[in-house]
Specification:
- The chain is of the alpha+beta class and 644 residues long.
- 64% of the residues lie in helices and 12% in strands.
- Strands 2, 3, 4, 5, 6 and 7 form a 6-stranded antiparallel beta sheet that branches.
- The protein is globular and about 85 Å long.
């Protein structure tokens, strides 16, 4: 009965989402007692809707933990022999479950807006909740009519088909939830923008209400993308951390839009500027998350990240995308002329720097969007082509470097107006650091590609520039949001340094060895000792025992070729030795039938870990800013409560 209870909760949630939308429309259109009652009721309805959809998700997790094979989704995506962690996370390791998780976080987010939001005026708050109800209603319809996660099988099979072995990793437990939390945060920001356009209240109060959601979404997207990158890096066995796969791009595009939106909403909240930019970017950011949802679930992509589903479901999502985004753009076009312009500012100013920052982010977003969708559009006309890393590196790389330069200068600019010569004086040390790095690396390396060299130099300059806002301040009295900006910007510089080092200095070796033989990769001597059989909870494997040595340092590594029976799959499990200055990455290949030698693929990747360390710093910086702003609001409300 757990599945039936979950389905009933889902139906009730859908009906309440429809009621939430109707109450919002009624409350905004009528100025009588009925309208007032509707406005009063919409918040409790949103809270109950959020609670019911959480129950539905809990029911789905329950049937997966019980391995209830009479539920189609469990039979197709689980197996009784799976470890419990993969039964738990397997609830969203499929199309229907991932969509239910998406809607669950959406419902919970709407409930939180109804319960805690105090910065908005009443009408805008109601319009925001109505927009959330409209978004939720479309996805409830999609689940109930096209992707029912609780559909039964009769008769139930004796055993399930199992989970894709590539997903049988702890990363499944946190990578999708963090990404979805980011997407839902952008949906809330989108609803705020729609609500403000409906009521005409696009101003600092609206921005202050939206900002925590944008910041939270940005933090979760950063965590999800960083974790997903490392998961793919060690799981897929190809030695790379980003392949510009269309589904990878589907998570990057909302992050780029959210980054631009975060800067705009800060300007609007603090300085009452960039009003139109903020509303437009809120629409664009949610559009990118919807496009990502479409790409992953439409069936038009062949990707390790994508769910291969009925294309008709993709048409349903495409219809929702057209409805929501088309409607929002129409509302934007109709109402933006009524939005009063914000305060003016000079070109050389903090606001001017943020506008340039947003323009560059928008150009990069456009490049990624075109590079992702163009092959799909061409395929529709019978032309098969691929757009890979060379295109993205060539097209987006130089613009990314310009963006980093603007990012380095921006925090040193003054609000409203600044002097260009004074800015150059403030930026002296970052420019010296970048130029010194450029000259030193060029001299020591004996020549390297221009893009990695500039990336390394600009990354060092950005790290130095990021500390300037706190260099002469009392650190104990520096607000947490300032520290958050410093840490996040430094994190971007650290990631750039890691990317440049990985691109420029990686050493790769593909060899075939007999047990007892050794080879050299970078500074390491790697010896193949033996090949052992190994058995796991639901797999068997051939495991290489490797010994790696360099300058008195040693490491034991055990890469595997794993064999899963449900479903029948062979995977390469890499083994990685991490040191302060890089990683030794090893993969076991097949045995040569003629000679008996074993294939090994080895990489020495100097400072590659800085990529994910930088990602962690970026997320930490956002979290510090979020906590700092929450603490400021909490202390303000407490003082008002105590002193009136």
């Amino acid at each position: 009965m757990i599945a039936e209870a979950g389905l009933a909760s889902l139906w009730l949630s859908a009906m309440l989402a429809g009621l939430q939308l109707l109450l919002g429309v009624l409350g905004l259109r009528r100025r009588d007692a009925a309208g007032a009652q509707a406005m009063a009721a919409i918040g409790p309805v949103a809270i109950v809707q959020g609670g019911l959809v959480v129950l539905a998700m809990a029911a789905l997790i329950g049937v997966f933990l019980d391995t209830d094979l009479s539920v189609r989704l469990v039979a197709e995506n689980s197996h009784s022999a799976k470890p419990w962690i993969y039964k738990f996370a397997g609830a969203w390791g499929n199309h229907e479950g991932s969509m239910l998780l998406w809607v669950t976080i959406l419902g919970a987010g709407g409930a939180l807006v109804a319960w805690k939001e105090r910065a908005l005026d009443r009408a805008t708050h109601v319009a925001t909740l109505a927009a959330q109800g409209a978004i939720a209603l479309g996805f409830y319809a999609f689940l109930l009519f096209a992707s029912n996660p609780f559909a039964r099988l009769n008769p139930a099979p004796v055993e399930g088909q199992g989970l894709n072995p590539l997903l049988q990793d702890p990363g499944l437990a946190f990578h999708p939830p963090t990404l979805y939390a980011g997407y839902v945060g952008l949906s809330v920001a989108f609803s705020f923008a729609v609500g403000a356009l409906v009521t005409g209240q696009v101003g600092p109060a609206f921005a202050r209400a939206m900002r925590p959601w944008v910041l939270g979404a940005w933090v979760f997207l950063t965590i999800g993308i960083t974790a997903g990158s490392y998961w793919a890096y060690y799981e897929l066995g190809w030695g790379g951390w980003w392949f510009w796969d269309p589904v990878e791009n589907a998570s990057l595009m909302p992050w780029l839009a959210a980054t631009a939106l975060l800067h705009s909403v800060n300007v609007l909240a603090a300085r009452d500027g960039l009003r139109a930019w903020t509303v437009m970017l809120a629409v664009v950011a949610f559009s990118m998350s919807m496009i990502g949802t479409f790409l992953v679930r439409s069936g038009i992509l062949t990707s390790v990240h994508a769910f291969a589903v009925d294309p008709r479901r993709g048409a349903f999502i495409l219809g929702l995308l057209g409805l929501y985004i088309g409607g929002a753009l129409a509302l934007f076009g109709a109402r933006i002329g009524q939005v009063r312009a914000g305060r003016n500012f000079a070109f050389v100013s903090r606001e001017g720097g943020l506008v340039i920052n947003n323009l560059l982010l928008s150009v990069i977003l456009g490049i990624v969007l075109i590079g992702t969708l163009y092959p799909l559009v061409a395929a529709g006309f019978g032309v098969r082509l691929s757009v890979g890393p060379p295109f993205f590196h060539t097209a987006a790389g130089p613009i990314a470097l310009a963006l980093v330069a603007v990012m380095a200068v921006g925090p040193s600019l003054r609000w409203r107006r600044d002097d260009a010569e004074a800015v150059l004086v403030r930026m002296l040390w970052p420019m010296v650091a970048a130029a010194g790095t450029f000259a030193l690396v060029l001299t020591l390396s004996g020549g390297m590609d221009v893009l990695p060299l500039l990336g390394l130099s600009f990354g060092v300059g950005l790290v130095v520039a990021s500390v300037l806002p706190v260099a002469r301040r009392n650190w104990r009295r520096t607000p947490l949001p300032i520290w958050g900006m410093v840490v996040a910007h430094a994190g971007i510089g650290v990631s750039m340094i890691g990317m440049a080092c990985d691109s420029a200095f990686t050493a790769e070796r593909l060899v075939a060895l007999y047990p007892g033989q050794a080879t050299i990769v970078g500074p390491w001597r790697v010896q193949l000792n033996r090949i052992y059989p190994n058995v796991g909870p639901n797999w068997s494997a051939l495991e290489a025992r490797l010994t790696a040595t360099r300058d008195g340092d040693s490491a034991s590594l055990r890469p595997q070729q794993r064999f899963f029976t449900d479903p029948p799959t062979t995977t390469s499990e890499s083994a990685i030795a991490t040191r302060w200055n890089g990683q030794l990455y090893t993969v076991l290949g097949q045995q040569d039938a003629a000679t008996g030698r074993w294939q090994l693929r080895l990489w020495w990747k100097p400072f590659v870990t800085l990529i994910w360390l930088g990602g962690a710093l970026i997320a930490l910086g956002g979290a510090l800013a979020l906590v700092g702003r929450w603490w400021k609001e909490w202390t303000k409300r407490r003082r008002e409560a105590l002193w009136g």
